[in-house]
Structure formats: C-alpha cells, structure tokens
Design brief:
single chain; alpha+beta; seven-stranded antiparallel sheet; 13 helices
Length: 404
C-alpha cells in the first residue's frame, strides 16, 4: 500500500524544510524526503559553520536570472525581517559581520534545529535517508513516487533538490531530470560563486603570490561593452596557486562569461600613475619601496616585473609614460580566466529550471499542476553574502503558502 500525503517535498535542505513546515502549518499532510544520511549539510558548512543565513539588504537587484523580475514576488512577501522574527521565536542570537551579512553567534546547527522544530510542530513526516527512484503523474491527478522506502502518493510534489554545487555533500541533477521529464525548459546550469582559474603557463608568474589577500575592485570586461550583463564589486581578493579566489572573485564569477576578461583595480583608493607623477619631486625613494607602502611586497615586485621596471629605480628619474604604464597595470589589470574550479568549489549553481515555466506567486509549474520547484533548483542565483539562503526561505514560503 502506498503511503498517502497531500504534499511530498523532495529535498530536506533550506528551501525544502521551510516549505514543508509552512505547508504543514496550513493543515496539509506533508512528507519530506531526502537521500542524504546527514540533514542539511549545506546549511551546516555555510559561513564557516555559523551559517550566513540572510542579508539585511536582500532585494531583487541582488539576484541573477534570465527572467530577472520573477524573484520579486516571493522576496517581497518573505523578507529578511520575517526570517529574523523566526530566529527570535527560537531564541537564536546572531550578528552582522559585513555588508548586511548575518551569522549565528553560535552554530549553523541552530538553524537546522529551528527548521526541524518547525517541521515537527506542524507534524511533517520524514523519510530519510530515502532515495526517490521515479516520479510519475497519476492518471486521476496527483503523483506517484517510487522510493527505496516504499511507494508514496501525493496530490502535490515540491522539488527542492538544489543544484550541482559541492557534489561531495550529495548534490545531484535530480531536479533538472524531473523538469526535463515534464518537458519544462532549463537554463543551462553552470558553477557560480566559484574561484576562477587560468592557463598554467599564463599564471606561472603569479604562482608565487599564492596566499596574498587584499581589497580590490573587480569588474567584468562587459562594462567596456563586451557583454551587457556587467558588474562591479569591491571586496577582498585572494591569490591561489591556480588563479584567483576570495569574495571579490566569487562575486564576479557569477557574471563572468567564458572568453571575456575581468578587470581588477589593485589600488581602488588611488590613481597610482597620478600619485607617482605628482610625487616625483617629493618621494626621494626607489620605486619598489614606494609601492610597498600600498601593496604587499611580493605583489609590488610582480607588478614591476610585468611592466619592465626595476625595484631599485629612483622614482624621480622615471619618465611619466612609464609611470602611467605601471598605473594602468595596477588600476586596470585586465586578464582572461580560462575557467573555474567547477562545481567542486562552487557555492551555488547558476541556471536551473527556467522561471518562465513557473508561477512567481506559487512556484508551481504552470503546465504541470501540482508540481513545484523552489530554491537553488530554479534559475534564481543570489550574490555572495546570505542572499541565496534568503531565496531558499522566500521561495519555500511562497510554495508552502500556495499549498495550504
């Protein structure tokens, strides 16, 4: 005998648990199914174990999608303040770390426990670990789910299975396979919020800089007309053995298009060429010593080598043209990544179920009544800094309320 439910939610992550709790609070019989042995691992590892659970400034402009207006409805109906009210109810303390990013004072486990408690209070039934092997529409309406824990029948199914990022904690393409099965369009998935890599030979001069971090301004070359989806961020950059990482690079990676450059301003507070030219009369120093006032020594040396200047050259003796060349190298360092570290190190997946297939009010597939997609499975991708969790909460609530 199949187990009977009003709603089956596949995926017990941030969006799935939120949706299950809200739907069940409205009186629906809800089952939450997840293939993992450990619950909500992505929440657990977020924010260094403290979970960057939302951002105070979250709004539609912080999200990427081929259908950019889609996210407005859910985000406006469930805001960061709504989530903070839930945190307060469960007495979870938090702090703002940087640019509106909110973290638990103690542990990400508190968020998981809160969501479990909300599900428990509403009577959500759990099947975990449990793998959904097939999903099919029933001739008389509703759906049948063949699982390794037995057959489940539900009037509605919510797919909250996430994207492809971080496969070691169980990411799969299940949500995309379901979308294809029901002839729903996908926006091609790709890694986002991910370190960028470069050709080994091209990167060889910079390998020695691995470990250096500094605040920079980074933009996509698209701001110069190569691509209409340009962006600019001011955050920390980290040099690695294979390329570039740090918040600045993770942010820009979601906007970067293969084959196009990124442009890095290593000294966003100053126009280096102008400062050096104006200082020729007063800065009676060697060029290398001047640069290390503002840049890490190894980076300053690399910059000078790239522009053919000697560290011991006296600033006063250098022609303005050479100083302008050095300034361009520091303030507009243009380079073309060859790729990224891929899903292995990507924090999220850009792309997914095309939102033009879904109702922005309910998250239901407009051509498949009763089938919903929420969270990272959908083509809505937030910036770094708690935005993707806010989308998980908001889309989960939108679907959960529609199911009540």
């Amino acid at each position: 005998m199949a187990k009977q439910f009003d709603v089956a939610v596949i995926g017990a992550g941030a969006a799935g648990m939120m949706c299950a709790a809200v739907a069940a609070q409205g009186g629906k019989r809800v089952v939450l199914i997840d293939h993992a042995g450990k619950l909500a691992e992505k929440i657990r590892i977020s924010g260094g174990g403290r979970c960057n659970f939302t951002n105070l400034h979250a709004g539609p402009h912080n999200f990427l999608s081929e259908n950019p207006h889609f996210c407005k409805s859910a985000l406006s109906r469930y805001t960061p303040q709504d989530f903070l009210a839930l945190m307060k109810k469960h007495r979870i303390s938090y702090h703002e770390k940087h640019k509106g990013q909110l973290f638990c004072d103690e542990s990400a486990e508190q968020i998981i426990d809160m969501l479990k408690a909300e599900c428990a209070a509403a009577g959500v039934h759990w099947m975990m670990p449990c793998k959904v092997e097939a999903l099919s529409a029933r001739p008389d309406g509703g759906f049948s789910l063949a699982t390794d824990g037995g057959e489940v029948e539900a009037a509605s199914v919510v797919v909250a299975t996430g994207g492809l990022s971080i496969p070691k904690i169980g990411a799969t393409d299940f949500g995309y396979r379901i979308a294809r099965q029901f002839d729903l369009k996908l926006v091609e998935p790709r890694p986002a919020l991910v370190p960028l890599t470069f050709d080994d030979a091209a990167w060889a001069p910079f390998v020695a800089l691995a470990g250096i971090a500094l605040e920079v301004e980074v933009e996509t070359g698209s701001l110069k007309g190569r691509n209409p989806g340009g962006a600019r961020f001011r955050e920390d950059l980290l040099f690695t053995h294979r390329g570039l990482s740090g918040p600045a690079i993770l942010q820009i990676s979601s906007f970067w298009q293969p084959g196009t450059p990124i442009v890095i301003n290593l000294l966003p507070e100053m126009d280096l060429a102008q400062t050096l030219i104006e200082g020729k009369g007063s800065l009676k120093k060697q060029l290398g010593n001047v640069l290390t006032q503002w840049l890490p020594a190894r980076l300053a040396e690399s910059l000078l080598a790239a522009t053919g200047l000697a560290p011991d050259a006296r600033l006063a003796d250098l022609p303005d043209a050479q100083l302008r060349k050095l300034g361009q190298a520091a303030n507009r360092w243009e380079l073309v990544p060859t790729g990224s570290e891929g899903y292995r190190k990507a924090e999220v997946t850009r792309g997914g179920v095309d939102t033009r297939e879904l109702s922005q009010q309910s998250m239901m597939a407009t051509r498949v009544p009763g089938l919903y997609f929420i969270g990272e499975a959908v083509d809505v991708t937030g910036w770094l800094g708690g935005y993707n969790f806010q989308w998980a909460w908001a889309s989960g609530v939108a679907a959960g309320q529609a199911l009540q």
